[in-house]
Amino acid sequence: MNPTDLRGLLDQVGQGNLSPDEAVKRLRDLPFENLGHTRVDHHRTLRNGFPEVIYGEGKTADQVVEITRSLYGKNQTVIVTRTGEGQPEALREAFSGAVHHPEARMVVIGNSKPGAKVGCVAVLCGGTSDIPVAEEAAVAAEALGSRVERAFDVGIAGLPRLLAELDSLRQANVIIAVAGMEGALPSVVAGLVEAPVIAVPTSVGYGTSMSGLTALFAMLNSCADGLSVVNIDNGFGAGYQAHLINRMASKK
Amino acid sequence: MNPTDLRGLLDQVGQGNLSPDEAVKRLRDLPFENLGHTRVDHHRTLRNGFPEVIYGEGKTADQVVEITRSLYGKNQTVIVTRTGEGQPEALREAFSGAVHHPEARMVVIGNSKPGAKVGCVAVLCGGTSDIPVAEEAAVAAEALGSRVERAFDVGIAGLPRLLAELDSLRQANVIIAVAGMEGALPSVVAGLVEAPVIAVPTSVGYGTSMSGLTALFAMLNSCADGLSVVNIDNGFGAGYQAHLINRMASKK
Amino acid sequence: MNPTDLRGLLDQVGQGNLSPDEAVKRLRDLPFENLGHTRVDHHRTLRNGFPEVIYGEGKTADQVVEITRSLYGKNQTVIVTRTGEGQPEALREAFSGAVHHPEARMVVIGNSKPGAKVGCVAVLCGGTSDIPVAEEAAVAAEALGSRVERAFDVGIAGLPRLLAELDSLRQANVIIAVAGMEGALPSVVAGLVEAPVIAVPTSVGYGTSMSGLTALFAMLNSCADGLSVVNIDNGFGAGYQAHLINRMASKK
Amino acid sequence: MNPTDLRGLLDQVGQGNLSPDEAVKRLRDLPFENLGHTRVDHHRTLRNGFPEVIYGEGKTADQVVEITRSLYGKNQTVIVTRTGEGQPEALREAFSGAVHHPEARMVVIGNSKPGAKVGCVAVLCGGTSDIPVAEEAAVAAEALGSRVERAFDVGIAGLPRLLAELDSLRQANVIIAVAGMEGALPSVVAGLVEAPVIAVPTSVGYGTSMSGLTALFAMLNSCADGLSVVNIDNGFGAGYQAHLINRMASKK
Amino acid sequence: MNPTDLRGLLDQVGQGNLSPDEAVKRLRDLPFENLGHTRVDHHRTLRNGFPEVIYGEGKTADQVVEITRSLYGKNQTVIVTRTGEGQPEALREAFSGAVHHPEARMVVIGNSKPGAKVGCVAVLCGGTSDIPVAEEAAVAAEALGSRVERAFDVGIAGLPRLLAELDSLRQANVIIAVAGMEGALPSVVAGLVEAPVIAVPTSVGYGTSMSGLTALFAMLNSCADGLSVVNIDNGFGAGYQAHLINRMASKK
Amino acid sequence: MNPTDLRGLLDQVGQGNLSPDEAVKRLRDLPFENLGHTRVDHHRTLRNGFPEVIYGEGKTADQVVEITRSLYGKNQTVIVTRTGEGQPEALREAFSGAVHHPEARMVVIGNSKPGAKVGCVAVLCGGTSDIPVAEEAAVAAEALGSRVERAFDVGIAGLPRLLAELDSLRQANVIIAVAGMEGALPSVVAGLVEAPVIAVPTSVGYGTSMSGLTALFAMLNSCADGLSVVNIDNGFGAGYQAHLINRMASKK
Amino acid sequence: MNPTDLRGLLDQVGQGNLSPDEAVKRLRDLPFENLGHTRVDHHRTLRNGFPEVIYGEGKTADQVVEITRSLYGKNQTVIVTRTGEGQPEALREAFSGAVHHPEARMVVIGNSKPGAKVGCVAVLCGGTSDIPVAEEAAVAAEALGSRVERAFDVGIAGLPRLLAELDSLRQANVIIAVAGMEGALPSVVAGLVEAPVIAVPTSVGYGTSMSGLTALFAMLNSCADGLSVVNIDNGFGAGYQAHLINRMASKK
Amino acid sequence: MNPTDLRGLLDQVGQGNLSPDEAVKRLRDLPFENLGHTRVDHHRTLRNGFPEVIYGEGKTADQVVEITRSLYGKNQTVIVTRTGEGQPEALREAFSGAVHHPEARMVVIGNSKPGAKVGCVAVLCGGTSDIPVAEEAAVAAEALGSRVERAFDVGIAGLPRLLAELDSLRQANVIIAVAGMEGALPSVVAGLVEAPVIAVPTSVGYGTSMSGLTALFAMLNSCADGLSVVNIDNGFGAGYQAHLINRMASKK
Question: Would the CB atoms of B32 and D161 count as touching at under 8 Å?
Fold first, then answer.
């Protein structure tokens, strides 16, 4: 599907080094491995710059281990998110290098050496209850290779707590702002900094928080510029995109 | 319906000064005057402390003038809100003292002398487009007898604009904070002051502003305390309640 | 952030009594204490007139005790709302003065002497199922220093029950009206009294009660004036704002 | 489809008075007349006790006249609701007995002699803006043969206006209560009377009135018993059902 | 609140048989008895024609018994709906005549002799899962004094099942049609009969059934006339109103 | 109700072979058998081409066995969907030929011989979590008599996985595309094939997946043609309709 | 992208008949022609079995003519749906064979000879106001090559009108059932026939019709099997899929 | 508010170069200029890296010119978005360098020389109707200083059109993907590229497009990683954030 690869294949066919039948077959077989319940996409590292991430929710511990094994065999870092019951234990038993981050509900397996992190991603959250989502974002960005600065419980009802972090926020290439309830934190932050802000609404709140929809909609309606938004409670998605941006900003 | 009055009536009946039949009749006739399309409630000043307000929308200019005349004949200040086409003109023609506030879409008729205002109600709004609703609140509170301080276009995306008003905000007995879009202004304000804050969501915004529902829900979910909320675009309701509070605070 | 304080600091700097570096540091350090998971805001009493309230839901008993200790050390009344499992017990063990209000799901710690209450806040509710929310409002206002009058199960389907309370309602500086289902109680009350009414929708009901949204929307759409609204089931928020208003009305 | 008729047909077939083919044909032809755009259902009077009603909205004046002619030829009273532009004029030109009720947006054609009305249907509405819907209900019930008592602008914000009507309300066999905004009128009424109440929400209001959904939901959630509800602004539907009930109550 | 009673009281006062003070007191004391958590409304039988119904959900078994005792002492039939855990047992222990209807989740206490039922209320439901709601309606109407005919599992996907009941349906004074999912049963029924139809949406279904909202909205939008609707799963409300109508139709 | 049958009955009546009374009775008795809680519709095979399907959810194991017995006695294949606790076991005990498909939550009883399947229905799904719904569709189509090809975990985030299945997809007479989250799979598929596509949204996802509404709405809004949609998680409905189409396409 | 074509191209490259560069270019250039605002997809006939359809809404008359010209030059039938102002006139001026269907808001250009239609698609609608959507479905199916039978105004409130069409409905290979308001028509139809039913909700109705959402949800929740649904008012989509099914059923 | 500036000010005060009073004044006066209706924020370039953008909607042409003049006097590029009636003309009359982009509804004033653009932002859209929003994004990014590549009408229903752009997409530092209806384009793109993707839902569609909410929710639920989302139709917001990212990636 990748035009560049397609060109390469065609060149080989034209040079007689590859039969047309074989070429069609390769195009089919290359990208993934079919485990029955799941098609593991080994091609993704080339295509997207990072291996497929395993979403743990709704999978059995055995399925998660099997998929991890298929990916890990190719010598990559593997990330498992939203780990369900028994999954962290099963993964740690199967892979000696597996690290469990309970608050973030993630397991990371592979050679994520702390010293090698690049750039800076700042992760903020409004209240104590938003920490699990903020941790998911932070651990994700770290596992992918970014340096992360955390500042939790800096919600807008006590503005001085946030303003005291401004100096540090201004060092970051990208800021992840996590908030539930009225979801105003990313708007206030985006009005004070130059870096792009990725807003993460959380399902924290009750009544008209509408399980996070209010925070989501408020963030999308921000009167500040430079802000984009991910799904409710999607810390991983924010950490992933923040890393893509931070990595670019950190290349010389 | 008013127990006090009921007691009075019963006393008169018991003293033989009033026949039971007459008493029943009075209870019925006192409170309002039936214009056919509208029942004008003259009793309300006693019951609620302020005369009925005329909601202009959906009424003809003639109906509004007729209701105003019925109320005004009892020597009260009359307020007409959400004035529709032709209503301000008709009212100014019919009543020499009628003052039209076009931005607030209101007409006020009566003896609202500027010098006599009491206390202080602060009215803030986030952006230029919120001004009509903020003006409705401000004019309402003034017409009812409160002194009003306005600070418009102090939205949270440019926090310094708001912070510069803090000294002045802290003089107010009650603060009305009007905002559309993400609706975060009242939360930020309530986190910085001691006075009660009445939040007014506006229908300003697009997409996920949901015609003001997002601002409304965000305000109701505020992580700050001391805040209550009125209907979307209901500047009058905020001004009315703010006056009730300010009046109490201003009594010695 | 507080301009007055800022002025004070600047004066000291100008007088050579404070170095600029120290001034910046103080601005940062003054307002709060970082417990890791939570930033306790000691400055809030100066800024808002009352200490931060601890929202128990989603916190561990240990976290709640730790935050309470940090606040209580400064000699203030501490309020914990929406207490979760084990929290009341842990708090009562840690603080001898802790009083648990089980129906209101609150714990109050400190010198809230019953005799010292000021003014009058009336708390009404429509039905038996609304009592927990009404109690949360009542206990909050009492803990903050207001005298409270309760009248429960006075819903509009049996109007005489409400009308019998009118005399007593008219003594209050502010009325909190709590109702679920169709949420009409605050509208009926606001049409009969002069005081501001704070409406609290509850999630009581089924089907089209939409978990309290219908009561909320009905209250916001009230055809009566003088009414504002807080979030669904937010008894504390209503009690807090009612106290702010009652305190002002009770000052001589 | 009507078992009784089916039985009659089968009897005739069994007696040799009707051929099976003819029987099938009659079953098909009896019930309606196909005008191309509309199938006029002449059978309905037998089946439902009243002729089909013509919903004017979205039809041309010519179509409405054509359908009316088809129905009227069978000597029935014809009702046209939600009349659109030009329809009332066209109907009055085509049928000398056509009476136009502009506020109700209806045209009634036929022998609806005022003297012959039976029983009593009470029609209430909360505010001036609800009158068109209330009139639709009232005119419908009258056209179908019920006596109607109207009491408009008796909303709950001014309770005495409603209570003054109680004597008269208690004469009615069925009460139609029309209200927009918070939609509390039917609940208050149902708590005070013995007759069944048909509640009609209107789209009057703004913001959280949600185009009438809030009033609808509030009515469905009424804490009073004896109440059922029709669609938003569906005055006709309320008038129709009220007549069915009133007619039964009025039969000796 | 009852003008007739008011008149009676006033007459007595006017005749000197009652002091004004006593009159005010009576007006207050007559209607209800305050149990603390609940105000029992003894006056309701006079006002509404039937005693207050006890909604079991959210009450303790003890509260329910206490309220029942207060009502039952006045020699009335008492109905408890939505009985929660332990309530049926507690009621049957406390009142020898208590009858438990488990499918309907109701307990009826008093002299509801089967032979004395009047008129006819037909209760239909679309599917097996709708039976609990249909039973609630049927038991309610029976407890109040109506004769009830049941026809369950007659949904529109198998139209012949419904049509076979037509003869019997046409004997009823009022029809209760209960349906979940697409909620079309009441519309089809209302198109085939002359009697008023009370539609009850149920929360049966999944996905776009939206917990019953779809059935509710479909019923309110019925293209058939003569139909009104109660809240989702509100079998009792339908049975209550059906009885009011059937009773009127059955009076000679 | 079936005109053809009706005609046949009438012919017999006309020929004197059947009395009218008997004809009416047959019409009533033929279609279904009343088990009290359920009316089993034996006529359906004639009318719809396939026997009634038993929806297990909300029924007891005994009820399901009883209904199955009533249907199975007529020598048909019986399908039970959404089997609840204990139902599969009870059915397998009662019917030796019962086959349980746990992932699809279905039990199939009868002579569904694998060799006899006709045509081809392709069943795709986006992710591992969508498999239960996809299996429900696949097992349903197979039980009804269609040959089924499955391709699971071919979501659009890894397009090559889907494109590798194109050859095989193009053999199918009809394609069922199952997807949760953003629900884009059916749109992408419909843009690449000639066969009709039946889209099945699933409730897989979180936050703005809105329990499957987002996938549903996205599928209905597809910019590709040739696509129709069934309810959220309704695998059976898709399998049923796909079989109807495939059977027609497979007839010579 | 089409594996078959890809194979052909690769064969040619392997045989030296095509250079790799040229092959890549062809893959890119074949499928579409870039008009700047629109990419016309000529490849679609091969891929999907029918040319791209032009959606008129939001395009200028000139754009529509230009796209039509690009498609028509390849000798195909061209369909323009939802024609906006001036488009029908412009198309008829530019293409002599253009036929305008005003009720369906469509223009069809090409050789759609009436005699050549295959099979049978039945198109039903509930009421007069649903006709435009039903016509869009009917004209679409006809333009694509299907024979169409129409039966309009057969809504379920007058069931005999629908039942009289049963014989004719049973001739159809596929049935399109169009309905607004409560949207029950497709459910009733699907319960009576063997053919697959495509349901089309319309935005006809008011209040709780929710602009067609209620009909849509009701159709998706049908208690009848064999039914799938398209977007609100999407007559074209229904006609298109119906044709795909009818064509397969009509092939020998 | 800016700690850096605050530090600078404090240094000056400490050095006796600035009086405390003057320092407070500067902090207040620096940031903005009060035009009455609007507070122009000159400080923003320092704080956010780009001047305030003027949102034209709901402002008069005169207000827009006045605000532009205030900003432009400081020698900056000024951007006006969502220009309303008369605004483009007024701006071009007032500022000779004003360039009007009618499709994007924007006016750009200042020295945006085409040659100086950096990096690469790719802007895609699904269909012809999405072009205005895509243009808003493209013009915004260009005006801020980014090089932009456009590829319009590459929706997923004709996948080859999109795949043909892959080579070019892979050159971009960030991709803006604009789509209405089912909103699947960004998900498909994010699965094929390495760069971060900013998704922009549009309000294009009908029925279940829910004015763009469906596309928005689908994008937030993407099964692909590396994607964030802005408000419905918010092309400017996407262009702004894309520029922030592209600028960082382009710095050496």
Answer: yes
